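Feature request, filed as a ticket because there's no other form

It would be nice if the structure record came with a short human-readable summary line next to the tokens. Right now we just get the raw output. Example of a typical job, pasted below so the devs can see what we mean:
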Amino acid sequence: MNRNTIILLLVSTISMIIGVGLFQVFDAPTTTAETDELQTTSLASIPFVGLDDSRHELGDWQEPVIIVNFWAPWCVPCRREIPALIEIQKQYDSQVKVLGVAFDSVENIEDFERSLPMNYPSFIAGSKISMYSAAFGNSSGALPFTAFIDKNRELHSKHLGELTIEQMREKIAEML
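Raw output as currently delivered:
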């Protein structure tokens, strides 16, 4: 094997180990109590924890459309998608509320937001990753993942992978 192949294999292996480690740290198993609570809870009462430890529920926002975007600062497609989410929040200010749920530490999220200021709130996934995955239908747990919630606070649609601004606008138009 040549040197470049060895370096590529080494970087890939290290990335995989880091990814598995982060998954173990941030993905505490959903308890039976959380599963039971989720089955009897509407999306409107799904909890969110702010970077400042403030507590919110999906029903706290009054806009007719809510976009919940699951992302991480280390996720390249997530980073590419954020400018489109910023533009959507600006363009549909009173009709759409974008919420970001980040899979990383508060410090890393805040560092990222200093480099790319976001005009919508970010929340920390923390130990609720499994609950969010079940509630919003992300069975793979992969990122980025976006859920579109309608005015009745029901899941209208979901998308795994990077979305373009045009795709976001199409989903919003279906709900307005």
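Something like this underneath would help us a lot:
The first helix runs from residue 3 to 26.
The chain is about 45% helix and 20% strand.
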